[in-house]
Amino acid sequence: MKAALDRYFQLTENRTSVRTEILAGVTTFLTMAYIIVVQPAVLSGSMFGFKTGMDFGAVTVATCLSAALATAIMALYARYPIAQAPGMGENFFFVFTVIPAAAAAGYSNSWQVALGVVFISGVLFLVLSLVGVREWILDAISPSMKCAITVGIGLLIAFIGFQNSGLILKDPATAVKLNTHFASPDLIIFFFGLFLATVFHIRGVRGSILWGIVGATLLAIVLRQVLPSMPDAISQSKTLKESMLMTRFTMASAVVSAPPSLSPTFFKMDLVHALSAPMIPFILIFLFMVLFDTVGTLIGVSEQAGFIKDNKLPRAKQAFVSDAVATVAGAAMGTSTVTSFIESAAGVEQGGRTGLTGLTVAALFLGALFFSPIIIMVGSYAPITAPALVIVGAMMCRNVVKIDWLDYSETVPSFLIMMGIPLSFSIADGLALGFISYPILKLMSGKGRQVSWMMYLMGAMLLVYFILLGSRMG
To answer: What are residue 408's phi and psi, to 5 degrees?
Structure first.
């Protein structure tokens, strides 16, 4: 068995082992397990206090099944340690823009029409992948910009970690501010997990990030027992309440539970109305969003893992096809766009280099259907997994030294990407800033011939994307 895994995934060639791959898979899964809780809360509308019509339990099952299937395809076909699941950002666009647009167009089955939009965008995405368009895009991006994408995603991951921990809070005057309540349970758990994982990493302990998550979970359990009235104390203190996350750590009531039914959302998409004139722009917007989100994530994780050689990614077509099939399958099951997750970088940082990491993640998503109380306990309390995101973000930023800082036609677009991704809170939008500026600056500085036709085409297409997005969001 071990020899067969070694041959198929080329473990020896990639200087990894079965144990390392499994640890990496567990790490990746724990950092993205929140999607099991968040996705049904978003799509059902329960997170926002209204109902979209989508069944919470069915979306939960669709989330786990689509993530498991998509990640397994990526693992077996492309053999990369990249996990997939319904994407954040696309799910909010699905609920707040596409469903209302379908309702405004007169469709009473608005969420089914929205699923149809996602399904069709996935089919188009698959066609682009099969004909090699996405590979051309990947090859057209300069080495400096590839490194900038990695850094930008690292900054975004770290920023998400800081926000999830409660260390960075929203502020109406400055957008964000530091939470100075360092004695709050959220921050105590966060810093404990962060320092534990960092020290283990410095000492070369395998699975350091995973040990940090385990340690933070145990501390949360202890604090929950020592401070049983913690939520009540918080609710009585407005200042302390504002300084902490609204979600509280809750002990699992059981270990095993039966999964809900998938039937309320399974194959419920409305393809006929999704192809109507009012919905066509949303198909294109979803296509652009997932296209550049995936390109950015794939570059960021691959650059970190050292997969990119001579500015090319081996088996890029297989990776893109895997991603496209995931979106189609996800819509059929009843969830929004499925895409590659930036949290895959956590597993890569733990040594994951092959599809065996992905297979581990896929198995855990399937297991989550039956062990959801434990998964929800860890995944729904963000300070536990936030340290992993901060550490991974820090590691990804080391690629900043590979950018050509002496050539401003490379520096400025790269800088726009690095800052645009975290500040816009979107990989696609951050990439767009760099991709639009890159051909313009090269052309105006007399270096237009250094730019491939694909970059010129992408710059023009992204301008159209922003116009479409602006008109629909406005």
So the answer is: -65, -20
**240/184 Cα distance (integer angstroms):** 8
Q: How many CB atoms lie within 10 A of CB 233?
A: 12
Contact present, 455 and 435 (Cβ < 8 Å): yes
pTM above 0.85, yes or no: no
- Domain residue spans of the chain: 2-473
Q: Terminus-to-terminus CA distance in the chain, angstroms? A: 56
Over its C-alpha atoms, the chain yields an Rg (Å, rounded) of 22
Q: Which amino acid is located at 281 in the chain?
A: P
Residues 6+ apart with CB under 8 A from 355: 9, 74, 75, 76, 78, 79, 80, 81
- Alpha carbon distance 162, 365 (integer Å): 25
10-residue mean pLDDT series, the chain (474 residues):
82 90 92 85 80 91 94 94 88 87 91 96 90 78 86 86 89 90 89 93 80 89 73 46 51 82 94 92 81 82 85 84 89 92 88 94 93 76 84 83 91 94 83 90 91 85 72 54
